[in-house]
Specification:
Layout: E1 3-8, E2 14-15, E3 18-19, E4 25-29, E5 35-38, H1 46-55, E6 65-67, H2 73-76, E7 86-90, H3 91-97, H4 111-114, E8 119-121, E9 126-128, E10 131-135, E11 144-150, E12 153-159, H5 165-170, H6 180-193, E13 196-199, E14 205-208, E15 211-214, E16 220-223, E17 231-234, H7 238-257
Parallel strand pairs: 5-6, 6-7, 7-8, 12-13
Antiparallel strand pairs: 1-4, 2-3, 4-5, 9-10, 10-11, 11-12, 14-15, 16-17
Length: 258
Amino acid sequence: MATVDIVLRGFSVVTSEGNFAPCGVYLVRADDGRTLVYDSAHAGRRMKLLNALERRGIDPDRVDVVVASHGHWDHVQNFDVFKRAELLAHADELAYLAAPDPGDHATPAWTRDLFAGARGVADGEELLPGVRALHLPGHSPGSLGLAVETADGVAVISGDAVASSAAALAGFCPNVFFDAEKADASLKRVVELADVVYPGHDRPFRITGATAEFLTDIRPMTVGVGGLPAEVVTVEARTGLQRLLHGAARQSSTKGNR
């Protein structure tokens, strides 16, 4: 059976200066020996991506398939790392990328260039043995997930159709760029199908009753602000990060008044 590995962990860091939006990047190994990478993160994580692949013994030039969950900037900027891989996206997403809405700040017009040569796929299409495409529209027109048959059941790699455990437990998609009704239906589809969810911006989890059971522990994140000494915060400690940023601003202001 296929396996799913976390290459880069996904989480969300929102500050007064914008959203850093580190998405999850996942590696699927099929039992026929082929490899698939799901999403590629943004360029600010390129070296982290390359180092993470190297630690797993993966040569980017030998990856067979790269799947784009959708066209938003935080998921798509490192496709060129995988020079020989076939790039796949849902056909509806490719059609949208040809002329994205000018008001869609997550999909700049240049995004279409990153998808040059990509092949459109359809819901239910088998991409590798035990790996099926899932059309999960709503967050974007052609959001694409994967249903992966593993030894532990069905793993669904969802992208931002299910960005977090909080969204899964709440039962609705809080961040919609296309169609809220479709987004909620897609989230429900994932939750009902998956034994394990690999989300767009959170740790992998199982839904157990009214709670989420995480597959990995919280890992610390080092944050450096404006040349000040780096401090370590937990990934999900948003308020702690905000305090760190505000504290740095106060320190800088104090230094300037000396």
